[in-house]
Design brief:
This protein is an alpha/beta fold. Helices cover 44% and strands 12% of the residues. A six-stranded parallel beta sheet has the order 3-2-1-4-5-6, sandwiched between helices.
């Protein structure tokens, strides 16, 4: 029987932060707002490719590099440098999803240790939680920039377990990304997949331990 988790590990980008305002950033520089989703998916693709090749670069560096190849200069209402800076600075203004504050506090009240593990930077995570009034909720803000490989490489999850001083089996990874859920499961963690849009989980990945429609549901599922 799997031991009840003592540490809940949260992905940050899209899982806790609401990336929908990034579409406005693309529109504000003169490009279609739908380009935001393609850009973020391409950013992850390139980060994963570097990890698979045994390399690693910071999230912001990869994001900027993808932008420079993707933004159509003929549509921009400013220079390419200014457009890239405007889009990238959007990360410093993002909100958390509406279900996050109550969900985190319910888990904290249940006596669970809360940490983050992001492919982004700890500085961006810290500012996100300060804006949301959630500073002090997390015991640790962790980033793959210190672990080496990006998630879902097993080394990233092992790094989190080592920093928390617990075996992987005592940790639960919370994410909206099925690739993150699959990677954590293969590394020995239990998992909770947030499906805010009610979509189906891909069958080619390892199934999550818990499936929830909002973070607020997680504390109730763990209690039962």
């Amino acid at each position: 029987m799997r031991k009840h988790p003592s540490v809940v590990v949260f992905d940050v980008n899209e899982t806790l932060s609401d990336l929908s305002p990034m579409a406005d950033r693309f529109e504000q520089v003169g490009t279609p707002p739908a380009l935001a989703k393609l850009w973020f998916a391409s950013l992850l693709r390139d980060g994963f490719a570097l990890t698979a090749a045994g390399a690693s670069r910071p999230f912001a560096e990869v994001g900027e590099g993808v932008l420079r190849t993707m933004l159509p200069s003929e549509q921009l209402d400013r220079s390419l440098d200014d457009a890239v800076e405007h889009v990238m600075s959007g990360f410093s203004t993002l909100p958390v999803h509406a279900d996050v504050p109550d969900g985190l506090r319910a888990l904290q009240d249940a006596g669970l240790r809360l940490v983050t593990l992001t492919n982004g930077s700890t500085a961006v995570s810290e500012q996100l939680f300060l804006r949301a009034g959630l500073d002090g909720v997390f015991e640790l803000l962790l980033s793959v920039e210190d672990a080496g490989p990006w998630k879902p490489h097993p080394t990233s999850y092992a790094y989190a377990a080592d920093r928390c001083g617990v075996p992987a089996g005592e940790m639960l990874l919370v994410a909206v990304h099925p690739w993150d859920i699959d990677g954590a499961a293969r590394a020995g963690l239990s998992t909770a997949w947030i499906s805010r849009d009610g979509g189906d989980y891909p069958l080619h990945f390892r199934a999550p331990t818990h499936t929830i429609s909002s973070l607020s549901e997680l504390a109730r599922q763990l209690a039962s």
